[in-house]
């Protein structure tokens, strides 16, 4: 199951199934307030997003499941993994995180308090947003609203306390990510009691776009 970044949507992972065999089903989470859930209100607390996902996944926990999140999605994936492991301790679960510090190294922020130009500056700094979206007034207004709400959610996030994860954890990053020095991914080892691996790819915060095939191969290896 794939969890998108702030401002992202399920379509970010549309073509990812191509990187796996027929025995792997790629499912992407669609957060409220975008694409086919555009009319639904944005959520303001991580718990509001995580709890329904844990309930839904608990019913399907008889199948091996890997939770993969990029940036904000990594924090969401971690919270789902932590609670799902507590609820279904016998489930075959794995966690893969990308471009995000470990939960105990979470840094609150204030990007969500910026005006629209400040939000756009952040998007341009990180890359990953189509220039055509930023140049279109209507799409730009829609995008800044979604991004502001997502940043509010993740910047006010407070990681849950609990035991270290029993499931294997894979941490990925880009070597030129302006928000995450490559060595910071090693912090995820401190929450992983069930085994830890990491890999750093060439690229910035959205290294996984040009490196999708390599990232998929790494995830396939993590799947075992």
TrEMBL record:
Pfam families: Thioesterase. Keywords: Hydrolase. Residues 1-223 form the Thioesterase TesA-like domain. Gene3D superfamilies: alpha/beta hydrolase. SUPFAM superfamilies: alpha/beta-Hydrolases (SSF53474). Belongs to the thioesterase family. This is Thioesterase II family protein. It comes from Saccharothrix xinjiangensis.
């Amino acid at each position: 199951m794939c969890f998108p970044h702030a401002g992202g949507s399920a379509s970010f992972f549309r073509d990812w199934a191509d990187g796996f065999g027929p025995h792997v089903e790629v499912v992407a989470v669609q957060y409220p307030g975008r694409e086919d859930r555009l009319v639904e209100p944005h959520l303001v607390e991580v718990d509001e997003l995580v709890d329904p996902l844990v309930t839904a996944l608990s019913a399907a926990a008889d199948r091996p499941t890997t939770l993969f999140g990029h940036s904000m999605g990594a924090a969401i994936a971690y919270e789902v993994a932590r609670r799902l492991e507590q609820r279904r301790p016998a489930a075959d679960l794995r966690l893969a995180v990308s471009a995000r510090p470990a939960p105990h190294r979470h840094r609150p922020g204030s990007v969500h308090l910026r005006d629209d130009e400040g939000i756009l500056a952040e998007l341009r700094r990180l890359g990953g947003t189509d220039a055509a979206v930023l140049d279109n007034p209507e799409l730009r207004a829609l995008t800044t609203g979604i991004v502001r709400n997502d940043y509010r959610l993740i910047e006010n996030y407070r990681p849950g306390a609990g035991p270290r994860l029993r499931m294997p954890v894979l941490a990925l990053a880009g070597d030129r990510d302006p928000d995450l020095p490559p060595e910071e991914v090693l912090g995820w080892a401190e929450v992983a009691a069930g085994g830890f691996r990491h890999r750093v790819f060439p690229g910035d915060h959205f290294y996984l776009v040009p490196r999708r095939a390599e990232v998929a191969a790494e995830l396939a290896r993590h799947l075992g």
